TrEMBL record:
ATP-binding in keyword set: yes
Name of the gene encoding the protein in the UniProt record: gmk
GO cellular component term, pick one: cytosol
Family annotation (SMART domains): GuKc
Name the UniProt record assigns to this protein: Guanylate kinase
A Pfam family reported for this protein in Swiss-Prot or TrEMBL: Guanylate_kin
High-level lineage: Bacteria, Pseudomonadati, Pseudomonadota, Betaproteobacteria, Burkholderiales
Catalytic activity line of the entry: GMP + ATP = GDP + ADP
Record localization: Cytoplasm
Length: 209
């Protein structure tokens, strides 16, 4: 189905810089909105229902799963997280550009539910650089870093299933590439036809068959 809004899905192995790139993109482009996921975990700190997450009970989550209500969902550290299909449909049908920041498995699930979704994979420039970034973060014990690197091999093996690939060697260049993908989607014929209908009409350009 052709929606007025775009659905972008960004995936990457831990340490590739995905979150930093997405954060910088959103600071630059106010037309890109994050998707708000459902979760069975309790709110933390100043988190609010409907802003950071939709906080639901296990029973409510079970009902949504049974009713095929999620475009993707996963069990993370004993708590479940999912992206509601209806929420995505309403936003992109309303003309909003939505960005999902999820793992590759979730991305491929979303692509099945929304074939027009644009999948973007962020790669590190090398294994040595990926290891250095994980170590420099100072967040994980050595055994956790080794596990993240092992998982990264599996994750990066899926890159051919994505529409676009960005190699995050120099942050500014990678951010430029991400902006370019977003902008290019907005310049497609169908998007321009909707956004600038008056221009097409004034130029006597008929709608394509």
């Amino acid at each position: 189905m052709d929606h007025p809004g775009n659905l972008f899905v960004v995936s990457a192995p831990s340490g590739a810089g995905k979150s930093s790139l997405v954060r910088a993109l959103r600071e630059f482009d106010a037309r890109v909105y994050p998707s708000v996921s459902h979760t069975t975990r309790a709110p933390r700190g100043q988190e609010k229902h409907g802003r950071e997450y939709y906080f639901v009970s296990d029973a409510e989550f079970d009902v949504m799963v049974a009713n095929n209500g999620f475009a993707e969902w996963a069990n993370v550290h004993g708590r479940r997280y999912g992206t509601a299909k209806k929420s995505l449909e309403e936003r992109i049908q309303g003309g909003t550009d939505v960005l999902l920041e999820i793992d590759y498995q979730g991305a491929l699930q979303v692509k099945q539910a929304f074939p027009s979704a644009v999948l973007i994979f962020i790669l590190p420039p090398s294994w040595d650089e990926l290891r250095a970034r994980l170590e420099n973060r100072g967040e994980d014990a050595p055994e956790v870093i080794e596990l993240r690197l092992k998982n990264a091999e599996e994750e990066m093996a899926q890159v051919a299933k994505f529409d676009f690939v960005i190699i995050n060697e120099l942050f500014e260049s990678a951010l430029f590439d991400l902006k370019a993908i977003i902008h290019a989607q907005r310049l497609k014929y169908a998007a321009q036809r909707r956004l600038r209908a008056d221009t097409f009409e004034s130029l006597n350009i008929p709608e394509s068959n």
